[in-house]
Write the structure tokens for this entry.
Amino acid sequence: MRRARIWAALFALGAVTACNAPKQPDEGAHETVDPRSYDAFYLWPGVRPPEGTAPRVLYLLDGEVRSGGPVRFTRLRPGAPKLAGKELWLVVRINRLDWSEAAYGAIFADLARWQAAGNSVAGLQIDFDAATKGIAGYAGFLARLRAQLPPQYKLSITGLMDWSANGDPRALGQLRAVIDEVVVQTYQGRSTIPGYEDYFAKMDAFPIPFRVALAQGGAWKAPPELARHPMFRGYVVFVMR
């Protein structure tokens, strides 16, 4: 009986030790995007930076130029933000490239209002899903926009992984002439796009400064070649509601 109690005690001790032992990481596993590890964020109206973060760069959706009906800028963010000490990008999400002069004017007026409110406004970002084969036409639109954009502001765009990796070099060269950065989106909805590693493996010759956009809570393991890319400028986390 005593021997049985001894074996039972040893078994219990072993079970406790196993539970408290550190788990060995799975080298092939992806990590979850924790916003506290980053300092640049996408914020839609009504969304705040996550607790525990120290934002340095903020991309703030201001409004949209929607397809269908008259061409106009639809403002989604009431008033101008007041975020001294942060680098701000005014983001406009668009579904069409045939802008009216009124749309240009409304967006440029918002840039001026944000700057006048005491913000450090880096520039304008266009959020548009240009197809890989349509980069050349998109570059033409961006050239027209750049010609009218007040010169103190930079021009940024979002980019799909496919055309960032597989786009025609001449079309990408046209983009490089008119924009300051591309933010490459690695997610669709709330989830990271599977196989993103293959896209980044093809970006060796990508000629434009770029950031990589990650979804909060999404799966991500940085491809080893990314940090060595001469055009890589860091990450932006899309904050979920």
